[in-house]
Amino acid sequence: MQAGLEAHRLTKYYAAIPAIRDLSLTLGPGRILGLLGPNGSGKSTTVSLLTGLREPSLGQILFDGQNIADHLPEYKARVGYVPEEAHLYSFLSGREHLDLVGRLRRLPTGLRTRKIAALLELFGLTGAADQPISGYSKGMRQKVLLASALLHDPDLLVLDEPESGLDFAASLVLRHLIPILASRGKMILYSSHVLDYVERLCADVVVLHRGKVLAHGPVKDLRARMQSEASLEGVIAQLVTTVDPERTAQDIADIVGQHA
Amino acid sequence: MTPRDTSDATAFRLVTRVFLRRMVDNDLVSPHADRHESLAVLYAIVISVAVFATFFMSTDYLSEFVELPGVAALRALGDRFLFISASIAISALAALLSWDALALEPRDAAVLGPLPIPARTITRAKLAAVMVFAGALTISLNAVPSVLYPAFLTANIRGTRGATILRLMAAHATTVTMAGLFGFFGILAARGALRALLGERVFRRTSSWVQSALVLVMITGLLLAPTVRDTTVRGWIGRAATPYGLAPPVLWYLGLNETYAGRLVADTPIVVPARFALTPARRRAGQAARETYRALLSEFPALAHRGWLSFIVVSVLALATFLWTNRRLPDRSAPVPAPSQMGALVRQVAERGIRNDPEAQAGFFFTLQTLARSAPHRTIMTISVAVGLTHALIVVAHRGWQAVGLQSIPLSVLATSPMLLTMWLVGVRYAVRVPAEPTASWTIRMTWLGDERSYLAGVKRAAVVLATLLVVLLLPLNAAQLGVASALAHTLFDLLFALVVLDALFISYRQVPFACSYVPIQHPKIVWPAGLASALLVTYGFAAAERWALSTAPRSMVFGIVLGAIALLVQAIDRARRRERCFVSFDDRPAPATQRLGLFEYITEHD
User: Fold this and answer.
1) For residue range B205-248, what is the model confidence (pLDDT) as tens digits?
2) What ipTM was reported for this prediction?
3) Do B315 and B405 fall within a single domain?
4) Is A34 within 8 Å of chain B by CB?
């Protein structure tokens, strides 16, 4: 039985339109896998399949050698997830939200209370912990999402744009936290548009374009494949960019400059 | 007009349109729903209910071959009382359902604040949107009955002229529209006055509870209105009896209508078709009714005066408080009130009660939090309580609260608290089908460990705790009526009854409360009336059994034991049925409201 996450030839249709096709990837313990691609490339669909929130139309996902479709609750118990949009129960406070998540994950009362207090403190949310989430800023909501994803010490962390809305200090904490968690054997799937982040954090990347895997492997292999010494940004640009960015930027500036 | 004026006028029009949309895209009525579909459904409900009610109320007039004007004028008092009550209550409810959108909100400041639009224009646009919404609502609500009712009323009063019918229509339309605007502006004024008196911080803390209390009052008033008979209305107008509750404002607008158009019906001469003769008794009854009506005429001008005065006062108050409280865009960074210490205390006590089951704790607390804080859920619970309260008020109006002997307790008195409890539990059962916040449901889906039993047990426990509070609140009233010992036994029986009803309501429930997508009830026109009839049957059946049980101590004991056994039996059946885990679908989709042509299936099959 192989440890880790394996996706085999995943395909997902929405009303007969394929969002992803034949997607395969692997993620082992202690590894950080970057998931990259332009808007509409299928990143969010991939994430929703890998978290078990949606079922693939074709293909299967194995976790520690077992099909997650057959053991979905057990699988979800080992996954922590930070979604792209910070949708939380706005009528709960940050502490109540974490309490709800901790209870549903069957954390014992003492442990849950201690962890929640500590995480709120470390994420700088203690002062707002008992206020309704409806009054939180985007960054504060993002911190609640991070705390709730980490609360039960998951084996697999799926992070979809986790740095979105975070202030500078919190971003730095996150950048340090992810390698530490990986060093403790956690598997981390990191989906982001911030290529600089991904390049620093991830040993391996998957590049998606129009629902298909364009590349999967270590960043240095990608560079070699593209015969380029450029940054990851340059490599991705070569792989997926279909427009001339300089030309497009020039056109936008021209349109903006038009007056009656 | 200068270019600046032109751009201001354009901005005013655009912003007004945005605000109007917001009033329809209501967080309460249609969160995340298709606006056009919601509007179509709501408007269809309003029109069909108005047509149906008008026709139903007019059957007496339509079935008479010759209607006597005096009798019709008297009978119309009760009908008009109902029309005016409905107009006030429904318009007020519409205002309450748009409660947050009645004033500028932080999100308005966030979206419109950065744009080069003067704050004054934004405030004026909001006011215009509120006025247009109120006007459109009251007119659409009352237009059809204003035409149909006078036509039906005079259909068989021979000798009624066309101009008279038109004047009756105009008077009816004016009165009910004014009453509707009075209801709407009353809520606007109440909201504005509270906001001005309490200040932003206290208002935000109490606003949702005030809103729920007003919804409760309005729904109860709306449900009670059809039970008021024309003889009662006559008593109130003639000061033979004192009107109670919300009746006086309705009487003011009734007075307004009768001042302008009351004589038109009452003074119509009796015209009998050829070869048809009225019996002397009927002719005498018609004359007596005419005299009775004429005796009331002196009361109408004073009522009409109060109607005008109340309309002007409420409108001015609404306008003044609106302009005062919306003179600035709301501050986005205004501090959000923290929960009270009482909440923390309740949490600690409850946590001790279900110490070893975190999922049950989750269900328990999330139920309390959702029912208390989520606007759609609070409204569901308010409506269910209003139905039970209406039953209680009807019983009180007929029987009073005087002490009665155990042998002669009316069933309706004993059925009051079981009815309230049943409605409460039906409300909870319905509320769990509605997601607490659809976009946040992923939280529970992601943390769901595949077994709903503990979580559901927590949900039920929360419902029982709230039901117990309800019963305890009723205890002093029951004690005053039945005596302390019988009231305590009654309370205990009620609680056992609540346990049975709760388990029975959830016995086939296989979803995750507050987390699965909402699927509307199939065939509501059959299910809701059948449900209400069943509730009446069950509660009155229970009350009959309880009356037998309360007559002697041994009977009470036997009844208690039997009820306890039934409660345990239903629980055991529920447990047995849940022994096997079943698949929970979080994403059941309702059938589309539009006509299905099967094109999607055709495309996928041929793709």
Assistant:
1) 888 889 999 999 999 999 988 888 888 888 888 777 777 777 88
2) 0.84
3) no
4) no
- The more confident residue out of B44 and B95 is B95
Mutate to test the interface with A, among B446, B516, B602 (most CBs of A within 10 A): B446
B600 — contact with chain A (CB < 8 Å)?
Answer: yes
Residue B436: list chain A partners with CB under 8 A. Answer: 89, 91
Same domain, residue pair B318 and B378: no
pLDDT at A245: 72
| CB neighbourhood size of A253 (10 A) | 9
**CA B267 – CA B247 distance, rounded (Å):** 27
- How do beta strands A212-218 and A204-209 pair? antiparallel
Question: What part of B 357-386 touches A (C-beta under 8 Å)?
Answer: 358-359, 361-362, 365-366, 369-370, 373-374
Same domain, B162 and B204: yes
What is the residue whose two structure tokens read 């306008």? B319
- Residue B436 to residue B428: CA distance in whole angstroms: 13
Residues B419 and B566 in one domain: yes
With an 8 Å Cβ cutoff, is B516 touching chain A? no
Tokens of B406: 């155990």
Band (pLDDT 50/70/90 cuts) for residue B1 is very low
A148 touching chain B per CB within 8 A: yes
Report the C-alpha gap between B261 and B166 in whole angstroms. Answer: 10
Q: Is the pLDDT of residue B597 over 60?
A: no
User: Of all helices (H) and strands (E), which one includes residue A159?
Assistant: strand A156-160
Domain of residue B374 covers: 359-577
All domains in chain A, ordered by first residue: 1-78+194-255 (3.40.50.300)
Token digits of residue B281 = 């008794």
The answer to whether residues B554 and B444 belong to one domain is: yes
- Residue-level pLDDT at B31: 52
* Eight-class DSSP state of A254: H
pLDDT single digits (tens) B9-40: 888 899 998 888 877 766 545 555 566 666 77
